[in-house]
């Protein structure tokens, strides 16, 4: 069934981590429903052609797309991007209706050094938590303070079952996901009087560039395929459609939650 574009008319989505995986798929899905896209990403020259193709696909839906290739966790860069977004919105007359935090950059090292593996350092731990968790708070603070997000806005953050489970070398990312979920609850509580909803999306194991950086990802993917009652792994498009559905105006009473988008993977056990 085709979704009504009217609720998204004049609205923009700001996606942090917008060039691939969940961010890229959600950008394209939201654009297909009538929403224009601001994307923040960090790509090298080798991967920029993929980003250009994504922007072209977004524009092919008839929506606008402004992508910023910069470090979303850097305070100065964040301010510069928001300055530019403010200028564009002022000329466009729109507002940001959706924010998706899908930053996936952290250290994958064990806490204890053994068998030739170096233990994680304090700097690596703090960087992982800052990028994958704390940056959600800083972006949301600035958006609200600048008046770029009004009543009816939706904020989503990508989490995973790893926030509560142990995976080799995943400790810092697991801690970041747990912190991210705590931030979602606190932001939901504080933004409720402003009519802004905040939720975490717990995706199933998904074949993304971020997953492929995790040692042992092949086994994780194999287990996900075998235990998911849907008989397959989660895809970025599955998650993008779920997020888009949660952007509808009628979901204004859903906030402060960790919402599974995994086809039943998490309840299936091992």
Task: Describe the fold and architecture.
- The chain is of the alpha/beta class and 270 residues long.
- The protein has one domain: NAD(P)-binding Rossmann-like Domain (Rossmann fold).
- 41% of the residues lie in helices and 15% in strands.
- The chain is built from seven helices and seven strands.
- A seven-stranded parallel beta sheet has the order 3-2-1-4-5-6-7, sandwiched between helices.
- Helix 1 runs parallel beside helix 2, helix 1 packs across helix 7 and helix 3 packs parallel to helix 4.
- The radius of gyration is 18 Å and the shape is globular.
- The N terminus is likely disordered.
SSE layout:
Elements: E1 11-16, H1 21-32, E2 36-41, H2 48-60, E3 65-69, H3 75-92, E4 95-101, H4 122-145, E5 154-159, H5 171-191, E6 197-203, H6 217-227, H7 236-246, E7 258-261
Parallel strand pairs: 1-2, 1-4, 2-3, 4-5, 5-6, 6-7
Helix pairs in contact: 1-2, 1-7, 3-4, 4-5
The helix content, as a percent range, equals 40-55%
Give the C-level CATH assignment. Answer: Alpha Beta
Count of discrete structural domains? 1
Query: How would a crystallographer describe the biggest sheet?
Result: 7 strands, parallel
Characteristics of this structure?
270 residues; Rossmann fold; seven-stranded parallel sheet; 41% helix; disordered N terminus
């Amino acid at each position: 069934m085709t979704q009504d574009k009217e609720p998204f008319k004049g609205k923009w989505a700001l996606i942090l981590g917008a060039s691939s995986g969940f961010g890229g798929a959600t950008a394209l899905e939201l654009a297909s429903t009538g929403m224009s896209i601001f994307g923040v990403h960090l790509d090298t020259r080798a991967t920029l052609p993929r980003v250009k193709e994504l922007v072209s696909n977004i524009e092919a839906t008839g929506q606008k797309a402004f992508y910023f290739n910069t470090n979303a966790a850097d305070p100065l860069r964040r301010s510069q991007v928001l300055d530019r977004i403010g200028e564009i919105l002022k000329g466009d007359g729109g507002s940001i209706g959706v924010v998706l935090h899908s930053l996936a950059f952290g250290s994958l090292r064990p806490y204890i050094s053994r068998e030739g593996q170096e233990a994680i350092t304090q700097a690596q731990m703090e960087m992982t938590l800052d990028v994958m968790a704390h940056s959600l708070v800083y972006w949301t603070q600035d958006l609200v303070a600048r008046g770029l997000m009004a009543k009816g806005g939706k904020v989503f953050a990508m989490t995973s079952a790893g926030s509560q489970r142990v995976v080799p070398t995943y400790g810092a990312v697991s801690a970041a996901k747990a912190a991210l979920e705590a931030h979602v609850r606190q932001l939901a509580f504080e933004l409720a009087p402003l009519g802004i909803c905040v939720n975490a999306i717990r995706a199933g194991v998904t074949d993304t560039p971020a997953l492929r950086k995790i040692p042992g990802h092949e086994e994780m993917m194999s287990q996900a395929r075998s235990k998911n009652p849907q008989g397959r792994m989660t895809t970025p498009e599955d998650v993008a459609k779920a997020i888009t559905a949660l952007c509808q105006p009628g979901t204004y009473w859903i906030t402060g939650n960790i919402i599974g988008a995994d086809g039943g993977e998490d309840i299936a056990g091992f």
